[in-house]
Structure formats: C-alpha cells, structure tokens
Amino acid sequence: MQYQFLTLELQEEIAHLHLNRADKRNALNDGLVLELRHAFENLPGHVRAAVLGGHGAHFCAGLDLSELAHRDPPQAVQHSRMWHAALDAIQFGPVPVIAALHGAVIGGGLELAAACHVRVADATAFYALPEGTRGIFVGGGGSVRIPKLIGVARMADMMLTGRVYRADEGERVGFSQYLVAEGKACSHALLLANQVARNAPLTNFAVMQALPRIAEQPADHGLMTEALMSAITQSAPEAKLRVQAFLDGAGAKVRTPQAGADIAPAA
Q: How many CB atoms lie within 10 A of CB 175?
C-alpha cells in the first residue's frame, strides 16, 4: 500500500518503514500516526521483523505543533488515545521492531522510539522532551514507556529543565542499545532485524507480548506467567528441533564477542 507520510518496502522477511516528512523533520501529524498504525496492523504474514527509521536528517522532531488544535478535555483525551493505539500497534504488533535513530529524537519522536523493541542510534542522534517549555505534557505513551528506559527522575529532569542528551549519553542512560557511526543506524538495524527474524517465532512473540506484561505484574503473578510462557514455547515443534540440533552439535554456540563485533551468531 502507498502511504502519504510513510514509506514501506519489503525485503524478503524484513519490512522497512520510514517516516516521510523530511521537510518537517518528520514531525508527527495525525495522518502519519494513523498510517503507522495501519502499516503495523497490516504487515504481510511472511514478515518476521521490521526496521523503523526516518528520511532526511532526523528520525523525528516530535509532534507537529501546527496541528495542535484547541480541544476540550474529552476531545484531547480521545486524541491522546489515538496515539496510544498507534504506538501499541508497534510495541504489541506482529513482529519485533528495530528503530534506526539519527538526528532529532524529540518529544513524540522519542515516544515513538520507545515503543520499538530495540533502538540503534548513530552519532548524530540527540534526545529531548521540550514539553515543559511549551506548556504541554507527553500524550503518546511517553510517561509509561520512557521511564522504563531511563527512570522517572531523568525523564522529569528533561521535561522540567529542557535537558538534551547526546547520542553517547543516550546510549549510556538507556535510550539506545547500540551506538554506531554517523549514517550507519539503518544498516546496523537491518543486521539486527535479520538476526531477530531467524529466531523461533513463538519466542519472539513471548519476548514482545509476555515480557513487558510480566514486568508490570506482582512477582508471584509474573512467575506464573513466565512458567506458562516457558511451557508453551518449549513444547512447540520448532523449539524441539532447535534444541535437538544444539544437542547434536549443529546449533550455533554462544561465544565471547570479538573486538569490534556487534552481533553474535543466532542460537
């Protein structure tokens, strides 16, 4: 399907999605948010992983403030919930999503990145939550997702003082899991996506769907959920074949990474 504000390309089992408002620094308008939801809810069945990036010099500079219309409180709540549904379609969608971050990752753009499962940033990336200076508050799920990456205190500091994190600082505090050279975020994200796509689908499902929910449960509930998910995954035919291959010496072993090697072989 052709989108107005988003590009979608399929390369075998990997979906490549890029925000396509480079002239607006990929600021999120309602049309783009709705297109993201549609795209992730309607990925072809053969897709096993996705890469999400942005065309131009920036990943996403946040909410398109030119669309910040006056809304009464009920209308504003419904608008925020529309964003929530779109970003839930990424976090709890059909496949793991690797974000390729560069340039501005600000406000709603950071909320979008936080909905992805793995984040790769290049050296140009920077992170900010300027809502405090603009008299608004996050509305795309950021208050739920971002503290899980960096903690409540750091998020409060960013919103209150306008603090900006550089790419290297962002990796250190948890905005990204990988930091690569300028211009390399998409290629590295693609390498990771191909590795993720080789995993057992049911294991990927468990990591995406069960793991974040277990983290929210009381310990005894989480342990029960874990036991159930563990039993389901290991009973799958593919799991039995993979374990037997490992026992037969045919499966890849976990090895100490070599200097400069970013990706270990898939198990």
A: 25
Q: pLDDT digits over 112-132, tens only?
A: 999 999 999 999 999 999 988
Write down how long the chain is.
267
Whole-model pTM: value is: 0.92
Whole-Å CA distances, 43 to 95, 119, 187, 200, 217: 9, 20, 21, 18, 30
Q: How far apart are CA 210 and CA 206, in angstroms?
A: 5
Alpha helix stretches (DSSP H) within 12-166: 30-41, 73-91, 108-114, 131-134, 142-150, 152-161
Domains of the chain (ranges; CATH) run 6-197 (3.90.226.10), 200-267 (1.10.12.10)
119 and 110 in contact (C-beta within 8 Å)? no
Span 69-107, pLDDT tens digits:
677 889 889 999 999 999 999 999 999 999 999 999 999
Q: Which strand (E) or helix (H) includes residue 120? A: strand 118-122
Closest residue by Cα to residue 110 from 126, 98, 96: 126
Span 14-41, average pLDDT: 97
Contact 16, 8 (CB under 8 A): yes
Residues with active-site annotation: 111, 131
